[in-house]
């Protein structure tokens, strides 16, 4: 069993890695800037237009590279400029950078503030925010904190709830946190980890490319307590657990104040999402002043990992509907 690298993706993009100071000075953010290698007339022509840059924010327990299968499937007319993805301060490569300052709690507003820090550091003008799960909610919080920052937000199965159904459970009682803490987090090799993942229906639903990227970039070579070498998750499972449990007010602020945003919000839900059943999805759409919605069939909360092509097609269509086909405006 082998890991496949996305050679086609890396032939289209030059990946420049940065370390950016977080909104809290003691923390750092591991960031990727994807610079398209313009080698066709469509991309070159599109680059002459003022197409907004795009910033990506991942879900809890994931990392910036999990966006690559989706990025590679976006219509090339919409990716002529640089794209930005970063690891939440307590996850992915950021967790490694911050291992000595990680805290026992996590407020979702810190992710929103770090999104704004990315925007400021790279001097981005009116970017488009694309987020998944609590990454999507954090874009909403960021725009609420600084209205007018974004041109539009694309929220993929966003995790945000009205106060009437919001349950704030402590770490010891939070079901998702407790499941996370019980999960295995050490393997002898990436091949062993991938083989174990493929035994589980949860991971078998992923696109093979997404699973390989998760195994390749989401894990760290370590030495176990008994001296044996192996790999573990870059995102410590305790940090993933506290991110589930210690949400602050961000989980419901992002829903209750969604109607304050004066920019287009495009919601994309998985048809079988356990996070966003049909009625809740409709409630979120109703909260948007300038909202629209799409559904990806036969998939759940992780639709961008399970069906990156279908999700990318919907994003490309939304961008064209909002900003016009780049070639048509030349």
From TrEMBL:
Keyword Secreted: no
Classification via Gene3D superfamilies: alpha/beta hydrolase
Coiled coil: none
GO molecular function: hydrolase activity
Positions of the AB hydrolase-1 domain: 54-313
UniProt xrefs under InterPro entries: AB_hydrolase_1, AB_hydrolase_fold, Carboxylesterase_BioH
One Pfam family matching this protein: Abhydrolase_6
UniProtKB keywords: Hydrolase
Protein name from the UniProt record: Alpha/Beta hydrolase protein
Species name: Lobosporangium transversale
